[in-house]
Specification:
Number of strands: 6
Protein name: HNH endonuclease
Number of helices: 6
CATH topology of the largest domain: Arc Repressor Mutant, subunit A
Radius of gyration: 26 Å
Structural class: alpha+beta
Organism: Micromonospora pisi
Bound molecules: zinc ion
Keywords: Endonuclease, Hydrolase, Nuclease
GO molecular function, one term: zinc ion binding
Pfam family, one: HNH
Order of helices and strands: HHEHHEEHEEHE
CATH architecture of the largest domain: Orthogonal Bundle
Strand order of the largest sheet: 1-3-2
CATH class of the largest domain: Mainly Alpha
Helix content: 25-40%
Length: 192
């Protein structure tokens, strides 16, 4: 058990006030809790921060770099760790308790650039992807087993950013295609 002092003020800042993206909040709270009441002097090895958030050391380093670039993590007084051997000195961080703002909304799963602009011609599905989908689905409609007028269908529509990946594609026959109605997008034909 460790009984290090915990700075509730800094924890509250992360939770209530800091404009921190959700995916970085865990890393920031672990660093902030080890600060003093002014939000200064947090010194923990990256491996220890990673252990507490359950993330990898590499991901923790990326989180710290992003928090630094967002101005939510500042370099503190490095003389606080001068008593430690040079190879074992963690970086000392301060957190800016005065910074308050709205938390950013998480980015959508598929980026906006992938969404089809009106009238723009779609790129053909790569042959390797097409072959893999037909092989996985047994060269037949995955709903009824028919082999008539087969076409690839995007499960998550292209118009809403669905990617051309094997996971997002399936084989449907002409009949199941038309039954799907407006929700379906026929995007590639076996005949071409
Ligand atoms: Zn079918």
């Amino acid at each position: 058990m460790d009984h290090e002092p915990v700075c509730m003020r800094a924890i509250d800042w992360v939770i209530d006030d800091a404009p921190v993206p959700a995916e970085l909040a865990g890393t920031l709270v672990v660093i902030a809790r080890a600060c003093d009441d002014q939000g200064q002097g947090s010194s923990q090895p990256v491996a220890k921060i990673a252990k507490k958030t359950g993330k990898s050391v590499k991901q923790t380093q990326r989180d710290i770099a992003r928090l630094r670039s967002l101005g939510l993590l500042l370099l503190g007084d490095q003389t606080l760790v001068h008593n430690l051997a040079s190879g074992q000195r963690p970086t000392v961080y301060d957190v800016p308790l005065h910074i308050k703002g709205t938390k950013p909304v998480r980015a959508p799963r598929y980026s906006a650039e992938r969404i089809a602009p009106e009238g723009v011609r779609r790129r053909p599905i790569p042959t390797a992807v097409r072959v893999a989908v037909f092989a996985r689905d047994g060269d037949a409609c995955i709903k009824c087993g028919s082999t008539h007028l087969l076409a690839l269908d995007r499960i998550y529509p292209w118009s809403r950013g669905g990617p051309d990946t094997v996971e997002n594609l399936r084989v449907l026959c002409g009949s199941c295609n038309s039954r799907k109605g407006a929700r379906i997008e026929v995007i590639d034909d076996l005949a071409d």
